[in-house]
Amino acid sequence: MDSDLKCNTLTCRRSLVDKAVVTTCSHIFCIDCANQLFSTAQICPACETSLTEPDDVVICSLNPSNDYKTSVLSGLSPAIILEICSRAISFYQYQIHQESSFQQAILKNVNERNAQLQKQLENVIREANSELGLLNNKIAGLERDLELERRKSRDLHESSKEKDKEYQKLKVRLRYPSPEMSSASIDATGRICRANTTRLNAKLSSGRAISMPLQVRRALLGLRPAPLNPIKTTNRIALELDSEWARA
Which of 4, 3, 22, 1 is nearest to 97 (CA)? Predict the structure, then answer.
């Protein structure tokens, strides 16, 4: 039959099943621990009681045979038998009380450790919530900045569309100029031609043949040119005059 008793060595605490070593100070140990603890001094390792008498430390069987049960108390008076039983029951009660105290101490340590871990967990949760709040604020700020950038992008897009419309209108006006722009271009061409006439007259009077652009000759003869693009025509005439003057 299994016993509820355990070795009283705190580093062992194994369950005692077959044989054990008991002391008169109501402690019990397994055979291995007893061989180590009582090999040098007869002192109880649990309560430090001196065990000098021969019967202070004995080996007992926890599962005695029927013959042992029959003979162990045979011949003893009922008073002695009752005294032995009373001491045996007191020993067992002390072991149960000691085991209960040990388990309560373990439970106390576990509860204290649990309380410490709970405090640490609360601190970790508090710090995590604080960091989470900071991150949420940062995300909110980034979202506001992103919305501002989106608005700027939309404004730039609208402005670009307006600029593109103005550019397209300007291209149309340059490709198909109005009569006022054509007159201004012709006047500018005439001024350029007159500015170069003085330099060309010196070469013409020398009898040297100088090729002149068609637009220049038409301008000198007083003919009205009809360019498709007055600005490009004016620039081209100026470049041709400069080129002819350089060759001359």
Answer: 4
Residue 101 lies in a domain: no
Residue 37's domain comprises 1-72
Q: What is the pLDDT of residues 98-107, one digit of tens each?
A: 999 989 999 9
User: What CATH number has the domain bearing residue 24?
Assistant: 3.30.40.10
Mean pLDDT of all residues in 105-118 = 95
Instruction: Determine the pLDDT at residue 172.
Output: 84
What are the strands of the beta sheet with 57-61, ordered from one edge? 28-29, 19-23, 57-61
79 part of a folded domain: no
Mean pLDDT of the chain: 81
Q: What is the pLDDT of residues 206-217, one digit of tens each?
A: 655 555 555 555
Q: Which residue, of 72, 100, 131, is where some domain finishes?
A: 72
CA distance 185 to 36: 123
Exposed / middle / buried, residue 53 (Cβ in 10 Å: 0-12, 13-18, 19+):
exposed
